[in-house]
């Protein structure tokens, strides 16, 4: 199957220095979306991509998104591009982002963050190398290698590259919804390369993400902060109430105590259970990542299920509480506890809100406190799960086997990538998360890197995926 791939792979190898140079040029543009002063660099990065795509023969549009929320600052444009419009071919829509997290050498980088540094062992350090400039350029490189090798590009490629991902994707959701049945109308499936392998050795395909409902519970009483030497024992204290309310939410083993949550969780099917067995993940890796052995479960499967397919509740902090070192004897007048629930199929956002509000209200009522309590949502995002049996995944699985010589793990992630569900809803098509980098790349931290092997084999993988997409029977 897909015999053209040998020629394509050889071409990618022959051009690997050129592709690394292209990544070097991209990393050199400090497109930090969260810093207003860097905005011109973010825009420059969008133009860089547009120019590269135009040179490759793609039709490109730079779509303005208006002003950044609550500011007078122009948002960087979304790069929309199309390569090929052959009615006989399938059309794949790919997404990536060209902005990056902030980075300063003083933060603890061993190298200049915006100067791609390739070590002899193949590690390529630079901000954005793995998140997400490497994967974005992967699509461009795949196009170029096909041209140079004289191999027909197997699909029509639609591209959507944004410049605000690391700062909330301001304006993108509206654009995707708007274009779902216009610019993206002929997309047969969607592929996003903006996540990571579970470990360092084995590639994976990701078919699910948890959602997140974030809450505040606010308790107030006295008109101002008090001194415990004067008022201790005379007033009911908001902090005492809050601690007791927060303690009622979840137990030491992470079991959520709110009625109506577990009831919403989809049961585990036999088929799903089978997906966990071979996954390259060990409790040792987890202990290392945690920096402790304080895990809730002792085995891999329960741990992965708890991270991917069951909800979890975390208490994050208390606003208004005394948190500095020392022994200040303040009684805070108002405290706001923050907690969130990572949500999974088939939990509903609104139904979950109602369960949370009811539980918190009852927990507070039980205290018979004269203080005042309010519980409210800060923000919510829905979970996502795709069918790993869709041809989109089958194609990616075959491509992975061809390039890496192994069956990929089918993974979910405990976190959220909100754009995934936006694309699914706007296009009505299957969405695949196809990562290029590995778990040690340090996407948001200092010394971010992409391994040369992951980059070059990743370019092969993206191209091979498109060839297998073209061959998969339409179901
Ligand atoms: Zn990213």
Automatic annotation (TrEMBL):
Active site: residue positions: 99, 165 (proton acceptor)
GO biological process: proteolysis
Residues of the site described as Important for catalytic activity: 227
Binding site for substrate: 194, 227, 329, 342, 416, 444
Cofactor(s) this protein cannot do without: Mn(2+)
InterPro entries in alphabetical order: ArgE/DapE_CS, CNDP/DUG1, Cyt/Met_Dipeptidase, Peptidase_M20, Peptidase_M20_dimer
CDD domains: M20_dipept_like_CNDP
Alphabetized UniProt keyword annotations: Hydrolase, Manganese, Metal-binding, Metalloprotease, Protease
Positions contributing to Mn(2+) 2 binding: 97, 131, 194
Domain Peptidase M20 dimerisation intervals: 215-364
Cofactor detail note: Binds 2 manganese ions per subunit.
Binding site for Mn(2+) 1: 131, 166, 444
Any one Gene Ontology molecular-function term assigned to this protein's record: metal ion binding
Similarity field: Belongs to the peptidase M20A family.
Name of protein: Peptidase M20 dimerisation domain-containing protein
